[in-house]
Amino acid sequence: MFKDMSLIDHRVTEILAGGSATPEDALAVLRAPDDEVLALTASISRLRREHFGNTVKVNYLVNLKSGLCPEDCHYCSQALGSDADILKYKWLKTEEAVSQASAGLAGGATRVCLVSSGRGPTNRDVDRVSNMVTALKDEHPDVEVCACLGLLKDGQAEKLREAGVDAYNHNINTAESHHDSIVTTHSYADRVNTVEQAKSAGLSPCSGLIAGLGESDEQLVEALFALRDIGSDSIPVNFLMPFDGTPFEGTWELTPMRCVKILAMARIVCPDREIRIAGGREMHLRSLQAQALHLANSIFLGDYLTSEGQAAEEDLALIRDNGFVVLGADSGSSDVLSSSARHERDVSKGSGEVRAAYRDQGVSHDPVARRRGAGTELQPNA
Ligand code: SF4
């Protein structure tokens, strides 16, 4: 542990000058006392400012196919054997996928993440997603598209690249030394292989983790160094949302302070990579979301794959209120709604009820299953 916060500041200065964090630095950040977390954030935020200024990248998820997955990832509400009460549907049609993605872009996102449940795509699935990407880019030529379709087979990454996909997401999720205790139907090596295939095809690799799966501090550090070494350009940091009906039901290992320390550790290990606060942001960071933005430089707008996030307008207010700006918002690449238009639309889709639902959750903070957007008749939260 750092005996004195001036030591971490000294290490940050060395990293700014071209050095790199050691596993000991990373562990010390994770184990910082709670009353030092504000100082820790201030110090490590220098790395975030150096590489990303005051920008926040805003990403939007479209769940193209929900549930019905044959894999057994214990943390996942869509997995084989999960009894979580989530939306389940087969592939969205191209028009619906484009319409959902367009809502996210209008809401301020610059990257759209097209995600499907399942072990991995068939070649027909790759064609289907390729058609969606072509149609989406016809309407929004500047959109950045990330596909997340599971384990890739030879040639599929190249096909996606040819279709205009910019990035491919496949999370390693946890340390290699912890992997087999959270999933048995595929291996850590399978996951790394897919990230490598994406990279080789010229897709920007996006790979991250989930914290709160019973891993040790050392395993969190192991996972971050693996992500650094694998060359992940963007690193989504998820905080476990323990859905009822999954093996992790009732697992609450994280506190807001712990989540901030995890993001600080991610930043010091990977100072120039996109660190994205992903699933579980509202549930676990709670009132520390703003502090976390001084470490991370990217968030998802609105809802997650199977659960509802806070209202998209609150996400954008979080960014604005804390002196950050949405990356690309001034470039004209996204058709962001005016605040009055957004207010009118939010009222029409009942975001007030969503906020009330969050309040009513009290201390349990159970995930709220998504019931709007992709796969439903209701407007998306964007
Ligand atoms: S994480 Fe992906 S592969 Fe694993 S169960 Fe969920 S949808 Fe299936």
What does the model show?
This protein is an alpha/beta fold. The protein has helices at residues 5-16, 23-30, 37-52, 94-106, 123-139, 156-162, 176-179, 188-200, 217-230, 256-269, 281-285, 289-293, 312-321, 339-349, 351-360, and strands at 55-65, 111-116, 144-148, 167-169, 204-206, 209-211, 234-239, 274-277, 298-300, 325-326. The longest helix is centred in the middle third of the chain and has 17 residues, at 123-139. It is globular, with a radius of gyration of 20 Å. Mean pLDDT is 91; it is low at 331-364. Iron/sulfur cluster is lined by residues 69, 71, 73, 76, 78-79, 117, 119, 150. Catalyzes the conversion of dethiobiotin (DTB) to biotin by the insertion of a sulfur atom into dethiobiotin via a radical-based mechanism.
Q: Quick check: average pLDDT? A: 91
End-to-end CA span:
41 Å
Total count of domains:
2
Q: What name does the CATH topology of the largest domain carry?
A: TIM Barrel
Going by helix content, strand content and strand pairing, the class is alpha/beta
Strand content: 5-15%
What kind of sheet is the major sheet?
10 strands, parallel
Instruction: Say which CATH homologous superfamily of the largest domain is assigned.
Output: Aldolase class I
Helicity level: 40-55%
CATH architecture of the largest domain: Alpha-Beta Barrel
Flag low-confidence runs: 331-364
Instruction: Return Rg in Å.
Output: 20 Å
Distinct ligand kinds: iron/sulfur cluster
Count of DSSP H/I helices: 15
Shape: globular
What is the N-to-C succession of helices and strands? Answer: HHHEHEHEHEHHEEHEHEHHEHEHH
Number of strands: 10
CATH class annotation of the largest domain:
Alpha Beta
